[in-house]
Amino acid sequence: MVNEQRVGQGGTGPGVISPDGSPIELYLQAEARGEDQLINAAIAPRSSILELGCGTGRITRPLVALGHQVLAVDESADMVAQITETETLCSTIEDLRLDRRFDLVLMMSYLINVPDDEARQRLLDTCAWHVKPDGLVLLQQHDRQSFAQPVVREREHRRLEVSDVEQLPGDRQAATMTHTVGDQSWSQRILVQNLSEAQLVGALRASGLELMDYLTPDRGWIRARPA
Ligand SMILES: C[S@@+](CC[C@H](N)C(=O)[O-])C[C@H]1O[C@@H](n2cnc3c(N)ncnc32)[C@H](O)[C@@H]1O
Fold first, then answer.
1. Per residue in 31-60, is it b (16+ CB within 10 Å) or e — as a string?
2. Which UniProt keywords apply (predicted)?
3. Which of 3, 42, 52, 207 ranks highest by number of CB atoms within 10 Å?
4. How does pLDDT run across 209-224, given as a tens digit for each residue?
5. Which atom of ligand 1 lies at the shortest distance from residue 51's CA?
6. DSSP-based three-state secondary structure for 1
7. Ligand 1 pocket check for 60: Cβ under 6 Å
8. What is the pLDDT of residues 130-173, one digit of tens each?
9. Total tally of structural domains belonging to the chain
């Protein structure tokens, strides 16, 4: 199934592919690239964390190892099945309404850039529902520069090709990302809605959240709290 409102719009390659097109085998081989340390520096020790769209636990595992209590949520049962180190739940983010609140609600991987305003609002409503009154919401947003033009990046034995780049009306971008590791290759078509700060503030406010600041100079990491 491909849900038209997902950031990922379908993927191909070996192994199981999640509904948004994310390849499980690729994510299983991937490691954190400093995101865990960035998140850890923004929260108190032993925080309770609701991680939305956790995938195979690439960031979950390091956060648990750092002493945090993580509930990892993903709509793909195959993804969450890979996580044995902490509590997990298979659910769409939009439909999640737990009777629990968390010090941190984490929604990374550009899910906020879903190209549908209503879908984005539902994601943010879930973030707002689950954050404690004095808690934080951390969101990771897409960097338009990464889809500015076709590019190939190589690091150790991994290769990432960004191709078929399209600049679309309404500040949307689309590109095909092809990851190659050894002799295995996965392609995923990605469609994103870039957000101006005014759009971001408006979307947060509509869910009862307010923008605090950005964790990184490129504004890729957004810190918000209950308004
Ligand atoms: C690109 S992967 C990234 C996984 C993880 N955040 C990471 O950085 O390694 C995105 C994940 O979000 C999940 N996902 C996307 N949209 C979702 C939704 N609306 N509800 C629940 N899970 C979703 C996908 O199944 C996938 O596992």
1. eeeebbebbbeebeeebbbbbbbbbbbbbb
2. Methyltransferase, S-adenosyl-L-methionine, Transferase
3. 52
4. 999 999 999 999 999 9
5. 6
6. coil
7. no
8. 999 999 999 999 999 999 999 999 987 889 999 999 999 999 99
9. 2
Q: Is there an atom of ligand 1 within 6 Å of 188 CB? A: no
Domain hosting 161: range is 145-190
Does residue 74's CB lie within 6 angstroms of at least one atom of ligand 1?
yes
Question: Residue 138 C-alpha to ligand 1 middle, in angstroms?
Answer: 15
- In this structure, are 27 and 136 located in the same domain? yes
Residue 16 lies in a domain: no
Do residues 95 and 150 both lie within one domain?
A: no
In a domain, 13, yes or no: no
Q: Which amino acid is at 166?
A: E
Here the tokens at position 126 are: 């879930």
**Based on the domain organization, do 52 and 158 belong to the same domain?**
no
103 lines ligand 1 (CB under 6 A): no
